[in-house]
Amino acid sequence: MAADNPSTRGASTSGEDAVPDVMGRRGGRPPRILVIGAGVIGLSCAVRLAEAGYDVHVLARDLPLETTSAVAAALWYPYRAAPPERVSAWSATSYRVFVGLAEATPAAGVRIRTGRELTTSAGPPPSWADAVPNLRPVRTPPPGYAGGWEFEAPVIDTSVYLPWLVERLTDLGGTLSRHAFAELPNTAPVVVNCAGLAARKLTGDPTVVPIRGQICYVEQVGLTEWVVDESDPDRPVYVVPRLHDIVVGGTAEEGDWERQPRPETTEAILAAARRLVPELADARVLGQRVGLRPFRPRVRLEAERTGDDRLVVHCYGHGGAGVTMSWGCADEVVSLVRAHVAA
Questions:
Q1: Compositional bias (Polar residues) spans (predicted)?
Q2: pTM of the entire predicted model
């Protein structure tokens, strides 16, 4: 991974000054915070907390490139997450951050690409339309489609981006460790629970369920624009070009825990993608993976006090929009910690 400009790495990725707000108020050490989970949500929260001056340590059963975040096509696109108004606000914040990274920090693996969400029936703009600059109707939809929406969106190559987040965290003095746990650790006054699907067992929350997503990676054949078709809720079709490959999907199988790719599903995914994007007809398949999206009827982002007076901030249940909402949610986590913890 190419090294980025140190002055860029040291700046807040939100576009605001990353002025520590907990260091040195009383001349002591900053509060210790444990972040549970090393997917994109956990790492984004950890980076924001470290930027704010907290002593941050990430504990995770799965390291970043082993998580569902590593499987994601990671197109900025609010998908299978609620409630709509909060999703839109979190996503808008993340959009701005990703645009800043694309412009100033190429080593982060973020690119801005034009694409289209195609629809089979006419309808109003999506609920998150206000989060997107220059959203416009598709003027000439392909056969079989009634219309859609065209816009520029960040595409995040998670194979590059997740290691970049880890590097950013360690540059700020944070740590990442593999840790097997049956319950929230009690070795710090603050725990941030970004356990994703594992929060189902960790917090006893049966509303968290997997939405299985199977994808393929195919060789890059010169494609630069992404496309999404959600007309079948169980079998969304999406084609997302990255720098060195193209992510093709997919599935949205709620309650399905199977982590191994199914050959018949791979064939169906490729057939649908090739109908939508004929340029993929001869693209060589490079690989296939499965990720279990952590869905919840509403994203849980709230603080609670435990019986031993520790603060637990829950941030999980992001469905198919973890990358899309990551920075907006991370900023809110920092606000909750600030509101409850004095330095």
A1: 1-15
A2: 0.91
CA distance 169 to 163: 10
Distances, alpha carbon 98 to alpha carbons 15, 102, 308, in Å: 10, 6, 38
Binding positions for D-dopa are 238, 293, 320
- DSSP per residue, 253-306: EET----SPPHHHHHHHHHHHHHH-GGGTTPPEEEEEEEEEEEEEEEEEEEEE-
Domain ranges of the chain: 30-340
| Confidence at residue 5, expressed as pLDDT on a 0 to 100 scale | 32
Residues found in the chain: 343
pLDDT in tens, 269-307: 999 999 999 999 999 999 999 999 999 999 999 999 988
User: Of 71, 60, 29, 34, which Cα lies nearest the Cα of 49?
Assistant: 34
Instruction: For 30-340, give the CATH class.
Output: alpha beta
- Written in H, E and C, the secondary structure of 184-239 is CCCCCCEEEECCHHHHHHHCCCCCCEEEEEEEEEEECCCCCCEEEECCCCCCCEEE
Residues making up the annotated binding site are 68-69, 73-75, 238, 293, 319-324
Bridge partners of 212, per DSSP, are 253, 292
Tokens describing residue 258: 């199977």
Which residues participate in the annotated binding site for FAD? 68-69, 73-75, 319-324
Among the listed residues 119, 121, 123, 99, the one whose alpha carbon sits nearest the alpha carbon of residue 111? 99
